[in-house]
Design a protein that fits this description.
Elements: E1 7-8, E2 13-14, E3 19-20, E4 25-26, E5 31-32, E6 37-38, E7 43-44, E8 49-50, E9 55-56, E10 61-62, E11 67-68, E12 73-74, E13 79-80, E14 85-86, E15 91-92, E16 108-109, E17 114-115, E18 120-121, E19 126-127, E20 132-133, E21 138-139, E22 147-151, E23 154-159
Parallel strand pairs: 1-4, 2-5, 3-6, 4-7, 5-8, 6-9, 7-10, 8-11, 9-12, 10-13, 11-14, 12-15, 13-16, 14-17, 15-18, 16-19, 17-20, 18-21, 20-22
Antiparallel strand pairs: 22-23
């Protein structure tokens, strides 16, 4: 279902089994695969690709030239940079830590990051620009720019370059 109140760019390919809510914005030349859900207020850039079964929740912002493998979930209010590659089954969580009085947790992924398959980004943490996160990692800390991390919990491996 495609809401008549969604803003869809030119040459955008939305699979008939995708669900796009009102207020969503999808940039030019973006491909939305089957069973993907784009919630209200989400803004997806140009030249992006979503394979299948992805959920982009409320008010998420995704930069240009970003691609997602299947079964990715991006929690509300998160930001994903431009030129990011995310393999399948990435989950960006946003559950607040109520013991600390958190009301809203905003997390994100910086420009140029590469996220391996089956990675989870825990609440309140971010992944820096041009960073690589190895497959099957659970990120429980802020990851600085230009670093490689992996493991459960994910730990610093080395600087890129």
């Amino acid at each position: 279902m495609l809401s008549s109140k969604a803003k869809i760019g030119k040459n955008t390919d939305i699979h008939p089994l995708a669900y796009i809510e009102e207020g969503a914005e999808i940039g030019d030349n973006t491909k939305i695969g089957p069973f993907c859900i784009v919630r209200k207020g989400a803004k997806i850039g140009a030249n992006c690709k979503f394979t299948a079964y992805c959920e982009i929740r409320e008010n998420v912002v995704i930069g240009d030239n970003t691609s997602f493998g299947s079964r990715c979930t991006i929690s509300a209010n998160a930001t994903i940079g431009k030129n990011v590659t995310i393999k399948y089954s990435f989950v960006l969580t946003d559950t607040p830590d109520l013991t600390k009085g958190d009301q809203k947790v905003v997390a994100g992924v910086g420009d140029g990051a590469l996220i391996g398959a089956n990675v989870t980004l825990m609440p309140g943490f971010s992944i820096g620009k041009n960073t690589i996160i190895g497959a099957c990692s659970q990120v429980r800390a802020h990851v600085p720019d230009d670093e490689i991390w992996y493991g459960n919990p994910a730990k610093f491996f080395k600087k890129k370059g």
